[in-house]
Amino acid sequence: MSWLQLHINTTPENAPAAEQAMQKHGALSITLADNADQPIFEPELGETPLWNETRVTGLFNAGINTRETLEKILASCSDEEAACQWQILEDKDWEREWMSHYHPIQCGENFWICPSWTAPPAPDAINLLLDPGLAFGTGTHPTTFMCLQWIATQQFHNSYVIDYGCGSGILGIAALLHGADKVIGTDIDPQALLATRENVKRNHLESDIFPVYFPNKCPEQKADFVLANILAGPLVELAPTLCALLKPQGKICLSGILKTQEEAIVKAYEAYIDIDNIHQDDQWICVTGHAR
């Protein structure tokens, strides 16, 4: 089965009207995207930013009358001069399409992240088998990759770890495969808790050594390691909470941070920990330190 996509290139001011017009006239789904290679990494609290040049795309059944539908949409949004284009979208197995582009990633000399549907390239290495589902964390993004590289250098034997914002569970599972005794995972997203549980099973680990909780249900127990790959805003707000979870000399790894946000992170954490290293990959950084 085929579908039709309607692209409308417009301004941030006109984008909401185009979105509402598409919804009114039969769009099954609508997405807004950058039309000028202008990244937006993390909005301010309460802000919903749009790109200076915004592309609004609606998905429609292939049987519609494209000419009449377009006329109605442009009339509804009062933007008859907007640049528009219809495109045929062939139906695909989108899950398999994504899977075909996700390959094993080497994160350390003897440590790989492997999609669960492929054979590990180094069978004798530490191989973390992963299917992220709807949760964040595959190892491909610089923030996750830097955390995994750091984990591969640490001594986790006999340690207790907290994976704060566990997503797919990738960081906590990596700690277990490197020798940690137990990991506690926490996330606000129920899909993340589900994905973590499934990935724990996928790596032949017992569920009781990586239990997961919503933050308000998380046990209050001090840890040897705290891992938090989220965003700079929440990390700043959570600084007292995360540092209070550390044992004396316990180590912390923070990521999801843009280089431009480094000063805010350092200021928030230096009252509680000694910062050991700030590693950069592209526009992102990973901050590591230890409790005094």
| Major sheet characteristics | 7 strands, mixed
CATH superfamily heading of the largest domain:
Vaccinia Virus protein VP39
**Count the strands?**
14
Strand content: 25-35%
What is the 3D form?
elongated
* Radius of gyration, taken over Cα atoms and rounded to an integer in Å: 23 Å
CATH fold-level label of the largest domain: Rossmann fold
Helix content: 25-40%
Strand order of the largest sheet: 10-9-8-11-12-14-13
Instruction: Indicate the CATH class of the largest domain.
Output: Alpha Beta
Whole-number mean pLDDT: 88
CATH hierarchy: architecture of the largest domain:
3-Layer(aba) Sandwich
How many helices? The count is 9
- Domains (count): 2
Summarize the helix and strand pattern as letters: EHEEHEHEEEHEHEHEEHHEHEE
Oligomer: single chain
Low-confidence stretches: none
